[in-house]
Amino acid sequence: MTETKRNILRTHTTAVSSRMLYELAKEPVFRPMKYFSIDRVYRNETLDMTHLAEFHQCEGVIADRNIGLSHLLGIFTTFFKKIGIDKLKFKPAYNPYTEPSLEIFGYHPSLKKWVEIGNSGVFRPEMLEPMGLPKDVSVIAWGLSLERPTMIYYDVKNIRDLFGHKVSFTSTKKNPICMITELVDQLSKLEETLSKQQWLGGKKPTQEDMDAVKKLPADFNRKDYPYTFAW
After folding, report:
1. What is the tens place of the pLDDT at every residue in 202-228?
2. Where does residue 125 rank: exposed (0-12), middle (13-18), buried (19+ CB within 10 A)?
3. How far apart are the C-alpha atoms of 30 and 128, rounded to whole Å?
4. What is the per-residue pLDDT across 21-72, written as a single tens digit (0 to 9) for each?
5. Residue 161's CB: how many other CB atoms inside 10 A?
6. Which domains does the chain have, with CATH numbers?
7. Nearest-angstrom CA–CA distance, 150 and 65
8. CA torsion, points 129, 131, 118, 50, in degrees to nearest 10?
């Protein structure tokens, strides 16, 4: 009993999801919900090229009717494809609070091996019903690593290079995610300018604006910038 009362560093963020689901069950009428959290977790791991003693877990939970494992597979395929990771494998797994459960693996081109990048599953009824959720409600959930997908995307061979004195500030400032953010800010200002001047006979974007547009990814949502892309 004494041992079970000791505090430990958390190994996952599922406790956050459980608390939110319990609060959802208190509502008079059930409504579909999505919850997301990103936080640091800790493991008793031997450090190597793909393992850290601490990392960030990106947790997601969806509570709704008529959802299941196929929706999880669709979410992962779409999500990772959007961030440039399209080589995925799924493996059945065991989790005490989900059934069925599956692990997600991404292929690392330089390491030439599959690396686990997440775990997921459908919450077991015996976990949901004591909270007070309706019996016909299902909950799908996942916990994704932040560091390992970063390794795959940027072709980092050693996960330890993402932390500490080895991290390059230059590469951080020049990475594509920061670049896209700057371009979106530029587009937002251009869109506002063009929309205001539309009534004054219109204004064509400058060469600098056109160059910025050319740098955008092919799947960029252009519907949010109707004036900018009208030309």
Report:
1. 556 666 666 666 666 555 555 555 555
2. middle
3. 13
4. 888 888 888 888 888 888 888 888 777 778 777 888 888 899 988 888 888 8
5. 14
6. 3-167 (3.30.930.10), 174-230 (no CATH)
7. 33
8. -130
